[in-house]
Design a protein that fits this description.
Layout: E1 4-5, E2 7-13, H1 28-37, H2 43-46, H3 63-75, E3 79-92, E4 99-107, E5 111-112, E6 121-122, H4 129-142, E7 144-145, E8 149-153, H5 157-169, E9 176-179, E10 185-191, H6 195-204, E11 209-213, H7 215-223, E12 228-234, E13 240-242, E14 245-248, H8 255-264, E15 268-272, E16 285-289, E17 292-297, H9 310-322, E18 332-335, H10 341-349, E19 355-358, H11 364-372, E20 383-385, E21 393-396
Parallel strand pairs: 5-6, 6-11, 8-12
Antiparallel strand pairs: 1-4, 2-3, 2-21, 3-4, 3-10, 4-12, 7-21, 8-11, 9-10, 13-20, 14-18, 14-19, 15-17, 16-17, 16-19
Helix pairs in contact: 3-4, 4-7
Length: 399
């Protein structure tokens, strides 16, 4: 019996509703600008308090606005209903291999977060509980899920990849397409009940599924008591891990004191001449302070592979110990790989931030090893690309 199922009642975009997920932005003003430029974007529903007409409201106070926007989108034909479907998903871009996935629902009780907890869905990363509460409140108010959890099929990934490629090749014209901010084309096709749907759900649920993106959304499904959550099951060949950096808007000490504290912890610090970029490999992180940059080799701490990942060392030695900041502090912005190093250093140089921390991407080997051990990755440490687009396939929740 597979843990991956058709969407009982889906709402499929007819165009114009696709959006980056709510947590892909380093600047809230970008969200408002996108919604203003495209009022049909699902961002206006996912982040209701950032929509132009709702600015000034809290997230919770703006929930009625989100409900109204979804109802309007369904009424004006931006979505069309479908029942008992899975949805083929292909992402293409010039010079890139196609990425494939399957929109479906997955059993929430299969989520496992530690070695002694049974389940085929591995959630691998610490979360910010305030964000989880927002997702729970949104799902409860809307009665729908707009953004999928991205799950990596580790057991039968190659078989699933070939099956999805063949299915999309023979499926004819897509039901809808959408172009993202990077120029990638996202295309979807509906597959109703029958042998093909059965084969695809069996392959998608044919091995352990790792949460590659959507840790907060998966925990929100558990916290909210949802029996199933909306997911895109994808394949190892379809994804890559990009850098996940940090930007600190306000330091609790001077830059020189920060460097002295890092040296006292055992860090080796070398000035960088020229532009400060993402390190070519793990083991060293790059810091950008106003007018200067440094390569910092942080000392390893007691423990194993997980405790000594660069993102874990930055959280412990730089943010907590040297700056006295909790990882959830509002002065810390977690900046994914869609933003180049030049953007982060530019924020420091322009005075909008006081420190940029650039960190090499987590390796696939480290990611897999941590997951197989049922340990948690450091917060915001894996930026998988390409991202599944929100607002293309909406799952209506049973009432």
């Amino acid at each position: 019996m597979t843990i991956v199922h058709p969407i009982a009642r889906a709402w499929i975009t007819t165009g114009g509703t696709g959006a980056q997920n709510y947590d892909e932005f380093a600047d809230d003003a970008e969200i408002t600008a996108i919604i203003e430029g495209n009022p049909h974007s699902a961002l206006g529903i996912e982040m209701p308090h950032r929509a132009p007409e709702s600015l000034g409201k809290s997230f919770l106070d703006a929930l009625p606005d989100a409900v109204a926007r979804l109802a309007e989108a369904k009424a004006d034909g931006s979505y069309t209903p479908a029942e008992q479907v899975v949805v083929l998903y292909r992402i293409t871009a010039p010079g890139e291999e196609p990425a494939y996935g399957l929109f479906a629902t997955v059993d929430t009780d299969q989520i496992s977060t530690r070695a002694d907890e049974p389940g085929l869905v591995i959630r691998n990363e610490d979360v910010f509980i305030a964000k989880v509460r927002e997702r729970v409140a949104l799902a409860d108010a809307l009665g729908h899920l707009l953004s999928p959890v991205l799950l990596l099929q580790t057991g039968r990934g190659e078989e699933l990849h070939e099956a999805l490629a063949a299915a999309t090749e023979s499926a004819g014209a897509p039901a809808a397409t959408d172009t993202d901010q990077a120029g990638r084309t996202h295309a979807i096709w509906l597959v109703g009940p029958g042998p093909e749907q059965d084969e695809l759900t069996a392959l998608a649920g044919g091995g352990e599924l790792v949460v590659a993106d959507g840790n907060h959304r998966s925990l929100a499904a558990q916290t909210g008591g949802l029996p199933r959550f909306l997911a895109v099951v994808t394949t190892p060949r379809s994804v890559a891990i990009q850098p996940y950096n940090r930007l600190v808007s306000e330091l609790t000490t001077s830059g020189d004191e920060l460097l002295d504290r890092l040296r006292a912890s055992g860090a080796q610090i070398t000035p960088i001449d020229g532009p400060v970029g993402v390190p070519a490999a793990g083991g060293t992180v790059h810091l950008r302070l106003p007018g200067r940059g440094y390569a910092v080799t942080l000392p390893h701490v007691g423990g194993g592979r997980l405790e000594n990942l660069d993102h874990a060392l930055v959280e412990r030695l730089v943010l907590r110990d040297a700056l006295g900041l909790d990882p959830g502090d509002k002065r810390i912005t977690y900046v994914g790989g869609d933003y180049p190093a030049s953007w982060l250093t530019g924020e420091v140089d322009a005075g909008r931030a006081e420190l940029a921390i650039l960190i090499a991407p987590v390796t696939v080997d480290d990611f897999v090893a941590v997951n197989l051990a049922r340990e948690k990755m450091p917060r915001k440490s894996t930026w998988f690309t390409p991202k599944a687009r929100g607002g293309l396939v909406v799952a209506e929740l049973p009432r």
